[in-house]
């Protein structure tokens, strides 16, 4: 497996779960030493040196809902819940991709966790059971309904993303929203009642009409748009005949090892056979792994 850090993973933050459940301990951290992550809505504020910008409680509205992110350098870190959650696909916002290139791996991981959490709170202010308003509890790792007493917890949606190989070639696809020439690994949400292996097999068959076997787990990546866990896998196709679901994919093709190696070497702006996924995406990590394992 490649040693390159997976984007949004490896946060240096101590989540300090023992503090979340202790209201007195949490209250004691809300002092002048506390740090509050600066956000513009859900976007990070980035300093002159390409770092996350932190403020204090004095910079935060008195009625703001504060989520306890954890401890960093022995200081309590918080983020305020914005008025609105995500309203559109984050990948369509150029500022997101710019931030991903500017921030260090540690800062990117801190931002990703904070973004997922405050976005969930902004979109879950009302109880899914009875519709009444909910309140933030456990430092922001839970919301409780005061009417029906339901408890709600931040969710993470599992998504399988997989390399499919047949006779030394990889199956890659492109969606209509992709930039020109861009291809990536096939992917899809794990559905209720499925294993990861079953989700891989179903998604590949649904999107490309290919039956697969021997599913292997490779790596995972937290992806905070809005809050997904990308589960990177590898599998073997039983045939190379394709039947593409055009509601999911604009195109799908088999690429040789030489094709993939050239595309990865030349990058997204090169003249290779296709534009590879950005380095911040786990699909890029999977392609590097496949080339290294030869």
Automatic annotation (TrEMBL):
<keyword id="KW-0479">Metal-binding</keyword>
<keyword id="KW-0520">NAD</keyword>
<dbReference type="InterPro" id="IPR049734">
    <property type="entry name" value="NudC-like_C"/>
</dbReference>
<keyword id="KW-0378">Hydrolase</keyword>
<dbReference type="InterPro" id="IPR000086">
    <property type="entry name" value="NUDIX_hydrolase_dom"/>
</dbReference>
<dbReference type="InterPro" id="IPR015797">
    <property type="entry name" value="NUDIX_hydrolase-like_dom_sf"/>
</dbReference>
<dbReference type="Pfam" id="PF09297">
    <property type="entry name" value="Zn_ribbon_NUD"/>
</dbReference>
<comment type="similarity">
    <text>Belongs to the Nudix hydrolase family. NudC subfamily.</text>
</comment>
<dbReference type="GO" id="GO:0005829">
    <property type="term" value="C:cytosol"/>
</dbReference>
<dbReference type="GO" id="GO:0019677">
    <property type="term" value="P:NAD+ catabolic process"/>
</dbReference>
<dbReference type="Pfam" id="PF00293">
    <property type="entry name" value="NUDIX"/>
</dbReference>
<dbReference type="InterPro" id="IPR050241">
    <property type="entry name" value="NAD-cap_RNA_hydrolase_NudC"/>
</dbReference>
<keyword id="KW-0460">Magnesium</keyword>
<dbReference type="InterPro" id="IPR020084">
    <property type="entry name" value="NUDIX_hydrolase_CS"/>
</dbReference>
<dbReference type="InterPro" id="IPR020476">
    <property type="entry name" value="Nudix_hydrolase"/>
</dbReference>
<protein>
    <recommendedName>
        <fullName>NAD(+) diphosphatase</fullName>
        <ecNumber>3.6.1.22</ecNumber>
    </recommendedName>
</protein>
<dbReference type="GO" id="GO:0046872">
    <property type="term" value="F:metal ion binding"/>
</dbReference>
<feature type="domain" description="Nudix hydrolase">
    <location>
        <begin position="154"/>
        <end position="277"/>
    </location>
</feature>
<dbReference type="Pfam" id="PF09296">
    <property type="entry name" value="NUDIX-like"/>
</dbReference>
<dbReference type="InterPro" id="IPR015375">
    <property type="entry name" value="NADH_PPase-like_N"/>
</dbReference>
<dbReference type="GO" id="GO:0035529">
    <property type="term" value="F:NADH pyrophosphatase activity"/>
</dbReference>
<dbReference type="InterPro" id="IPR015376">
    <property type="entry name" value="Znr_NADH_PPase"/>
</dbReference>
<dbReference type="GO" id="GO:0006742">
    <property type="term" value="P:NADP+ catabolic process"/>
</dbReference>
């Amino acid at each position: 497996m490649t040693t390159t850090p997976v984007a949004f993973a490896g946060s240096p933050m101590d989540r300090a779960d023992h503090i979340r459940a202790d209201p007195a301990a949490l209250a004691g951290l809300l002092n002048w030493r506390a740090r509050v992550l600066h956000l513009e809505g859900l976007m990070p504020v980035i300093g002159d040196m390409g770092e996350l910008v932190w403020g204090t409680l004095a910079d935060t509205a008195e009625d703001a809902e504060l989520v306890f992110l954890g401890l960093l350098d022995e200081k309590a870190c918080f983020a305020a819940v914005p008025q609105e959650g995500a309203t559109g696909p984050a990948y369509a916002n150029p500022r997101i991709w710019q931030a991903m290139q500017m921030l260090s791996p540690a800062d990117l991981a801190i931002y990703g966790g904070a973004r997922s959490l405050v976005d969930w709170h902004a979109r879950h202010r009302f109880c899914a059971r009875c519709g009444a308003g909910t309140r933030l509890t456990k430092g922001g790792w839970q919301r409780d309904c005061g009417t029906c007493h339901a408890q709600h917890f931040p969710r993470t949606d599992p998504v399988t993303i997989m390399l499919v190989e047949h006779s030394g070639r990889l199956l890659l696809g492109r969606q209509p929203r992709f930039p020109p020439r861009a291809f990536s690994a096939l992917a899809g949400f794990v559905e209720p009642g499925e294993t990861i292996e079953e989700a891989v097999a179903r998604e590949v068959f649904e999107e490309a009409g290919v039956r697969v076997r021997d599913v292997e787990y490779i790596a995972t990546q937290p992806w905070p748009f809005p809050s997904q866990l990308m589960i990177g896998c590898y599998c073997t196709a039983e045939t190379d005949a394709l039947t593409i679901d055009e509601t999911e994919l604009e195109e799908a093709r088999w690429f040789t090892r030489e094709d993939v190696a050239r595309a990865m070497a030349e990058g997204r702006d090169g003249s290779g056979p296709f534009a590879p996924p950005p380095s911040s995406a786990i699909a890029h990590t999977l392609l590097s792994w496949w080339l290294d394992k030869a």
